[in-house]
Amino acid sequence: MTVLLPTSVDAAVAALSEAGAQPLAGGTDFVVEVNAGHRRPATVVALDRIAELKGWRWAGDTLWLGAGLTYTEMLDPALARLIPALTQAARTVGSPQIRNAGTLGGNLGTASPAGDTLPVLAALDAIVELHGPAGRRDVRIQDFVIGPKHTSLDARELVVGVRVPVLRGHQEFRKVGVRNAMVIAVASMAFAADEQSRSVRCALGAVGPVPLRATDAEQWLASRIDWDHRVNASPGDLERFGHLVTQASRAIDDHRGTAAYRTHAVGVLARRAAAHLFEPGPIQ
After folding, report:
1. In a domain? residue 136
2. Residue 137's domain spans which residues?
3. Element (H, E) at 210
4. Residue 89 belongs to a domain with what CATH number?
5. Is residue 8 part of a domain?
6. For residue range 41-83, what is the model confidence (pLDDT) as tens digits?
7. Cβ pair 139, 128 in contact under 8 A
8. How many domains is the chain partitioned into structurally?
9. The whole model's pTM is what?
């Protein structure tokens, strides 16, 4: 196995043009598959030396997150103030060692239905920035993750970063697993309110082949809130919201849980998150 160590995005893209080349970010999923004998690429293109993929920056109402941003870096209090749901999701990922290695771009590229950052990005209508031989292009998160562990990424393209809006309103990420820490999600949910546009967003993870938006539930709840006086929906409305969220689920039975349990769980998670809608938001 040949390991290449490019120091620029252009050099990495050129290296990926070689047949059978595999990009390597944190390796938290890929190395497991190699060790199990499921994958044996001829060439590995390590991305950890590319400065263009690192860090994050805030410009106006938009936040740019580099593909090389690690889960540990997502815990930065300055970033948490702008996109708290992402920080909450990162905190639930693996052990400290996994959080130090795993990256946002790797979570996107793996495209697991249980990927913890994916519901957050889906709730925020993230734009994924790609770079390939033909140059750079932007893809909506909904068009990027197209199936379980399948993306619209060309084999010669890299995820460079992600753009998301900075919303004024409450955000949460919640998930259910077989234990409280270092666990793959049985069901997960990201909730975000945008007080400026008077809308709510709710995206579901691990209950479908891709991250799912509960758009009917979002629109219904937004219509039941007194935005002018910052009064939340009634308990009955929240119950109805949770029920509508369950209707967006496309869960299946597997070794981690039943479809019925997963569907029920996302409704409960969404209802609990929405109950905190008018708590202090990320931007004061």
Report:
1. yes
2. 50-110+126-164
3. none
4. 3.30.465.10
5. no
6. 889 999 999 999 999 999 889 999 999 999 999 999 999 999 9
7. yes
8. 2
9. 0.94
